[in-house]
Q: What sequence folds into this?
């Protein structure tokens, strides 16, 4: 790895970035998550991944789905094609200790909580997807697009509810 | 605790509900989260909590905020009053093993992934709030409302981005 590499190992940091006093990756943690399944996508390497969901919708060829583990499949009852769903997933390859970040598309650094970067104290990503099909028995939900690597672990699925998920004054 | 109690201990379950083969509460887990701070609210008991964010907006008296731990405060740079923010928080009092649920307002049971119930395999709740003030040095963010218990642990803050957080066809 060279000094100018864009792939950050723990020793790498870009100009203007700030590391936290803490690195959750090496701590025991305050609570634990279980993976309920995984995202299936055409993206096998980080370099192939769309940068965000807008780009994912342009690139996706309808080959994206969620595979839910057997123990959780009864929890799919009530989901239907056409519904919007928030998915929460675990960015298992991301480091967790950079609080002030300078993404490649930005001139100046910004706080992690004002960014949707996968690098965050708890690498939980969130995306709003549209369901294209549901097979509760097989535990497969077809979705319109994803920017996530194939096999990314899933943490939760939540229905989109306009009354609470849309800004009240817009 | 009586059989008709609405507070569920691990032995309690309502008619029509189904328990998963797995109980994440007693497993080691696949990954760990660290709490980055906590929610401050007027609600000291679960019975006082608003049922959802709509009710929270009606009940809240402007006394809701987020306290962010020192190590993560540089991550607040870029947030401003008036911005909308998704907050992810850990429902630490909720059980994790019921996949088919019958909330009190529903006649028939529904899958956990079609509900916003705090009872879920990973008890991460999500709410969209409006920032009313930001003090990055003290680590305090004023918010318009919350349905969460006082001292509920925070897992993440994410900016609301209409381009990806709003259904593309609505």
A:
């Amino acid at each position: 790895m060279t000094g100018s590499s864009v792939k950050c190992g723990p020793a790498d940091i870009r100009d203007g970035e700030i590391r936290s006093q803490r690195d959750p990756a090496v701590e025991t943690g305050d609570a634990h998550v279980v993976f309920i399944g995984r995202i299936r996508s055409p993206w096998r390497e980080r370099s192939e991944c769309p940068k965000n969901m807008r780009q994912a919708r342009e690139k996706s060829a309808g080959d994206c789905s969620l595979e839910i583990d057997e123990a959780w499949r009864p929890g799919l009852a009530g989901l239907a094609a056409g519904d919007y769903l928030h998915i929460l997933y675990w960015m298992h390859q991301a480091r967790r200790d950079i609080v002030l970040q300078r993404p490649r598309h930005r001139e100046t650094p910004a706080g992690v909580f004002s960014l949707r970067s996968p690098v965050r104290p708890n690498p939980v990503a969130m995306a709003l997807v549209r369901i294209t099909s549901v097979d509760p028995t097989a535990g497969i939900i077809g979705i319109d697009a994803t920017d996530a690597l194939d096999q990314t672990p899933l943490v939760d699925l939540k229905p989109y509810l306009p009354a609470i998920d849309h800004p009240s004054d817009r």
